[in-house]
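Quarterly update, task 2.4: zinc ion-bound model.
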Amino acid sequence: MSVLGPASSGGVVRGVRLSFGALSVLAAIGAVVAAALVQPVPGDPDHLMVFGRQIQHVCPILASTGSPCASCGMTRAWVWAVRGDLALALRYNAAGVALLAAIVANGALRGWLLNGGSLPRRAWAGAVLGAAAWVVLWLGGWGLRLAGLYPMP
Ligand SMILES: [Zn+2]
């Protein structure tokens, strides 16, 4: 089975259509490449830069309320995770690390399926449980952060 294939209409090839599986593989690669392109400012792990230019981003919820949102720290979590500093990545946002891991695992799984692999009949139940566990981690981490028990590094 091919990942890429021509999409035809009336016998005329219009272009290349990507399957959901192929898009999942590309999403996994894109997530890792994007996280690798965003770099920590040397000597300042809290701030990020892209192609040498510092990102001047302030979370609108943090700016307006003084409290972090549930996703604060996710970009830094991805940036540090792809650089191998998992401990620092988890301190920024554990749900961010889990999300990146899920995107990469899903891309690997979809790539395997595209090459003839197969899933057990009730694999969807594992995906639903994984998504539910992620929401609990995301919102639970946010609650702990708001309570002062899971501070940013
Ligand atoms: Zn935020």
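Highlight for this quarter: Residues 5-12 have pLDDT under 50 and may be disordered.
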